[in-house]
Amino acid sequence: MEKRELPGHIAAALAGAGGNTDSAGQSWEGRDLSGSGNPLHNFDQDDGTADAAYTEALSALVRGTGGEVDVVRALATARVFVPIVAQLAEEEAGAHGLSADKQADMALVTVQAPDGRRALPVFTSIAALEAWHPEARPVAVYAARAALSAVAEKAELLVVDPGAELTFVVRRPGMWALAKQQEWVPSYKDEWLTGIVSQAVAVEADISGVGLAPGGGIGAKTAAGQIVAGGGAGPELRLVLKVREGLGRTELQALAARLQRRLGGDPDFMERVDSLEISFTR
């Protein structure tokens, strides 16, 4: 089995938490680990519950008084828990052909999204993680660090609290913004993209107008069935094209394919847009 190394910051956090002794074998008992000078972690006063600012931003999204940008902004400064599980690394043959000396490494948990993309699950509370995977070990990190771990694992989505009342998905551009500690601008609100798209459609004589709108997949659904306007896995961006009368289905499909290839070859577009759908108007 190929050995998967933990990202350095996750390995360090794991090594500094959860045992009866430190790395030198000295007992934790009787030692004061509180205060800003604690070198082991930043969460010594953490009670394992969800970050209040994130919870409020998510509630505002459900109420319709906030947006997914606000949720990602709150997540940027929140502590989350990354699930770690043991995986078999080596297995040697013992006496009489029986396996022996098994060694287990700790590995990040990744999941596959419905569209096939790899996703890294993170949790805002210990309770949410334990409800999802009782055997996983929680490692507390800031969300930006979790996003870096997702990039290292070649994940394209950060899934917050899978299995909860509302699972919030941070799509690739938002995940990258978290990792780089930058403000995230959703593609459907990104004025920079207007120029890129306009240039891409300029060579198409059958197109007389173009608009950018939220894609049909940005919404998420609560466990109770309520649709909220954010936190979905995509499609993220809808390209609305006004075309001339008389174009048939085959011609429209060919037109959409040409635009997708053209935009897919633009690195700025690919960095800013997670997923795309195209619709037509007359």
From TrEMBL:
It comes from the Bacteria. Residues 15-47 are annotated as: Disordered. Residues 56-177 form the SseB protein N-terminal domain. InterPro entries: SseB_N. This is SseB protein N-terminal domain-containing protein. It comes from Crystallibacter crystallopoietes.
